[in-house]
Amino acid sequence: MPARMLKLSVSTLVLATCGLAAGQTVSKPVYRVAAEQATTAPAAAPQTQLVSATEPTSPFDLTLAEGEHPLMPCIRVAKEGLAGIEANIKDYEATFTKTERLDGKPGEQQQILLRVRHEPFSVYMKFITPYPGREALYVENQNDGNLVALDSGFKRRLGKINLDPNGMIAMRGQRYPITKCGIRNLTAELIKIAEKDVQYGECEVKYNHTVKIAGRPVTMMEITHPTPRKNFRFHKARIFVDHELKIPVMFDAYTWPQEPGGQPILEEQYIYTNIKLNNGFTDADFSPDNPNLFK
Predict the structure, then answer these.
(1) For a designed S-S bond to 95, which of 274, 276, 292, 295 qualifies (C-beta 3.0 to 4.6 A apart)?
(2) Number of domains in the chain
(3) CB of 123 closer than 8 Å to CB of 2
């Protein structure tokens, strides 16, 4: 989630913006919903596995009313999750693992110790791999809108520097800026994109309730657009919602195969594990002068 980290845009969570290419029309929406008992594991990520769970049901109401767009149950779950985040989660700490495709090439997997506070919006990141020790700190409406960064390795001798979150240096190796980081932002963007998406057809939805991520039961929601269209951002996108926490803990998205019968291409994947809620973080926990940070 920074230096281009989690922009939850259409790429985020199970929703992709839907539309038609110029000159193409769909006379009737194509809505398909299916239940699935198995899923393909996502790209390998530290501390994250998909395994069969024993419970065959989901704690979420995924009932599809007659005539509804198949994304409507996903939207309802997302709205309930966002309401729960805003009402009950003030801050959290997690291990954040992400993989992004950049400039048409697979990027290196990154794993980060992440701390987020919602009010005021604050983010602290410390890289575990591949830049162990690199740190970034951002607090909304402070430091003239800049983030504070301290690099790893020999560059650490340069000390702390202020960077524009959307600038070239901060965005190097990232799809999304630190200002878009976090589960709340991801969920909110999911809702916004989904509500636009429901006006289009050619959308298939599958659910899988028999999945675990890092040992925790989740429900997977998978959205597929079978045919490439001008405004479809992704061929397939999936979100994984934690049964207990009721929040998305993983998202990945894929573009269409490059050749018929080929495999979808991973564009981005974001995973939250080891989540600890409501730690009581204060201003001091997001201060560049904190002696426990930027050591």
Answers:
(1) 274
(2) 1
(3) yes
